[in-house]
Design a protein that fits this description.
367 residues; mainly alpha; 2 domains; 13 helices; 76% helix; transmembrane helix; membrane; transmembrane; AI-2E family transporter
Length: 367
């Protein structure tokens, strides 16, 4: 019997090593999937009141995330392309690029971004430099695009099945419970992860609304030459950029300020730059600083320290790369919850006193 148990244990260890190696190869999309699962689980549960099956609710959750994001990115890309073409035509950037970039030579103008305009440019040979550039880097571009869609597919599939089968996974893990330690720990880490990561989603939405309001208010008082273009879009992107560590929202509102200041700088009327400085002050104080000081502590979970959480968001990408933005806060919550719940029990410490009572107030005569 012992020999059979040893064989089964060795086989199980081998399977675990193989699965761990495979998971490590796709650690980034798997981490994003767990992040999205806990960020959207409350939304998935709230749809129960509509009496929808779990699978339908999971599809609704993913669609309500994916469709607005795709529309937002598409809208931003189209606007960026149109505005870039208008700017290049206004300041003759095509001629300047043709003189200084060898592979760009021969391009006389940027074609219109319509099927007819692109086809006419192709017939005229204006697209030849771009086609040659793409052909020379075809392997890299193909690998980049295929990896992106592969990771996106993994994120969608794993998030979907976590939403559908999350309760089954939890029940399977509790089969190995020992003196309720595992149950206590899993329930605590599950609740804290949901609180922290769902709080991030609420933080993004709140900052996006604040940014849209602030940028619209700025445009209402600023002269036309220094208005922020597309304030609703810029505000929404600012909310999404709040997830990015260190630089955060600055990767959106600083370029927006530069775009607003560029016509003034090129036109020579520098007196209007005071409005741009005012826009930066509003963005830094109203959009970036105040919500970070007021909202983040409220939306950062019940037990996780806000400072440690901010360090996790900052240091995670530095150490692990992009996916560290999602992995570090998850690892922090898992580790702190273990230290708070399971570790004292494993070391033989007494259970925590009742919440709301000090350590020296456990008997009547101590009050």
């Amino acid at each position: 019997m012992n020999e059979k148990r040893l064989v089964v244990a060795c086989f199980g260890l081998l399977v675990a090593v193989v699965l761990g190696a495979l998971a490590y190869q796709f650690v980034a999309p798997l981490t994003v999937s767990v992040f999205l699962y806990y960020s959207t689980r409350r939304y998935h549960k709230s749809l129960r009141r509509l009496h929808l099956p779990s699978r339908v609710r999971a599809v609704v959750v993913l669609a309500s995330l994916a469709v607005p994001l795709v529309l937002l990115v598409s809208y931003a890309v189209v606007l960026l392309a149109v505005e870039a073409r208008h700017f290049a035509a206004q300041y003759a950037l095509v001629e300047l690029a043709s003189q200084n970039l060898a592979w760009f030579g021969g391009v006389e103008k940027i074609p219109e971004f319509t099927p007819h305009g692109l086809y006419a440019a192709y017939q005229a040979g204006d697209l030849d430099p771009f086609i040659e550039f793409a052909s020379a880097h075809a392997s890299f571009l193909t690998s980049l695009v295929s990896n992106f869609f592969l990771n996106l597919f993994i994120v969608i599939i794993v998030t979907y099945y976590l939403l559908v089968d999350g309760d089954r996974i939890r029940a399977w893990l509790l089969r190995f419970d020992d003196d309720a330690i595992l149950r206590e720990y899993l329930e605590a880490v599950d609740e804290e992860l949901e609180a922290v990561l769902f709080g991030n989603l609420l933080n993004v939405i709140a900052i996006a609304l604040i940014a849209i309001t602030a940028f619209q208010a700025y445009n209402a008082v600023a002269p036309a030459p220094v208005e922020v273009p597309y304030p609703t879009l810029v505000g929404t992107l600012t909310g999404i950029a709040s997830l990015v560590p260190v630089v955060g929202m600055k990767i959106v509102y600083v370029p927006a300020a530069l775009v607003a200041a560029l016509p003034v700088l090129l036109g020579g009327d520098t007196s209007l730059l005071v409005y741009v400085a005012g826009f930066l002050a509003v963005a830094v104080v109203v959009v970036d600083t105040i919500p970070d000081l007021l909202l983040r502590p409220i939306l950062s979970g019940e037990n996780t320290h806000v400072g440690l959480l901010m360090l996790a968001y900052t240091l995670g990408p530095v150490v692990l790369g992009f996916y560290g933005l999602f992995f570090a806060p998850i690892a922090l919550v898992v580790g702190l919850t273990f230290a708070h719940t399971a570790l004292p029990r494993l070391l033989g410490a007494d259970a925590d006193p009742e919440p709301g009572f000090a350590a020296n107030q456990r008997r009547l005569d101590e009050f």
